[in-house]
Amino acid sequence: MAYIAEKFPITRVLNIEYNQVLPYIFSSKLRGKELPEGKVKNFHRAKMSANINLITKQKWVVSTNLNYRYISAETEMNNPAGALFDSKEDYHYHSESLTFTYFSKLFRKMVIYSASASLDGSEQHFERLRGIATATMVLKANAKTKMSVGLFVAIDPSVKTPVIPTFTYEHKFKNGFIANVILPRSVYLRKSIAENGRISIGSELDVTSFYLYNIENKNNKYEFRQLDINSGLIYEQYLGSSFVATVKSGAKSMMRSRVFEKSESYDSYIFRAKPQTALYVGVGLSFNPFVREAAAR
């Protein structure tokens, strides 16, 4: 509770974001066959999320996470005959999860265990049920330094690496800078500005995904999944009344873009794209009522 009571918590109770990616070029293959070079002329995404504790006890918590994403993309490509054509598509993606978190001790260290069940889909159907389990040991936690190690396990046949080690590190330097590392998710160097502002520079991992239907006149269901690394600057401003405004900008490196049948693994793809790095801008607004509790103490 002390962690989320900060003005700029990692997990926000309610969060709304809008991101715009500037035009970029990409090469692609369909079933192993090279396609003409294409261009994404316009790409924007709106995202809303909620993180709510349903039951809170001394040693365990039951919480829910709700997500919705709207994606709009306008693409320009040449067909094999040489004719130029445009395509504009809108996609809707949502996910809902229920998480049980348990706090214990091992070797005199705090250990946090969690188990989650999540369901996602589009505006047409619920699609995939996933399971996630984590174990995190807090190695150090004082006023200046927080450090932990753990394991992340995904119960999902479409995931390429189901078991991932995790590491978090936060250190407050004397000059006011804060190193914030959450591997494999993000690495940031942060600095408070005045009383209610904060600027961050670094990189974070992101995933763009949604479901596709009626590809190649087939009834099979497909998923588009793209791994992104966003590198740049983030400015956050505490507005009072538990609200935080965010502005971000930088370079988006799209590492892998694939389309695969929902019942298959991520490696059994039918379409693969290699996008160029593109610039992005984003704005956001979040609400965290626990800040009021921190201010009152």
How would you describe what is shown here?
With 297 residues, the protein is an all-beta fold. It is 2% helix and 74% strand. It contains 1 helix and 16 strands. The protein has a 16-stranded antiparallel sheet that branches. A hairpin with a 2-residue loop joins strand 5 and strand 6. The longest helix has 7 residues, at 290-296. It starts with 13 loop residues before the first strand and ends with a helix. Mean pLDDT is 91; it is low at 1-5 and 293-297.
Distance between the termini: 13 Å
SSE-based structural type: mainly beta
| Number of helices, where a helix is a run of at least 4 consecutive DSSP H or I residues | 1
The beta-strand count equals 16
Sequence stretches where pLDDT stays below 50 over 5 or more residues: 1-5, 293-297
**SSE order, one letter for each helix or strand:** EEEEEEEEEEEEEEEEH
Q: From the alpha-carbon coordinates, what is the Rg to the nearest angstrom?
A: 21 Å
Reported for the largest beta sheet, the result is: 16 strands, antiparallel
Shape: globular
Helix content: under 10%
Mean pLDDT: 91
Portion in beta strands = over 45%
Compile the SSE list and pairings.
Layout: E1 14-21, E2 24-30, E3 33-56, E4 60-78, E5 84-106, E6 109-121, E7 126-141, E8 145-155, E9 163-172, E10 177-183, E11 186-193, E12 197-213, E13 221-240, E14 243-261, E15 269-275, E16 278-287, H1 290-296
Antiparallel strand pairs: 1-3, 1-16, 2-3, 2-15, 3-4, 4-5, 5-6, 6-7, 7-8, 8-9, 9-10, 10-11, 11-12, 12-13, 13-14, 14-15, 14-16
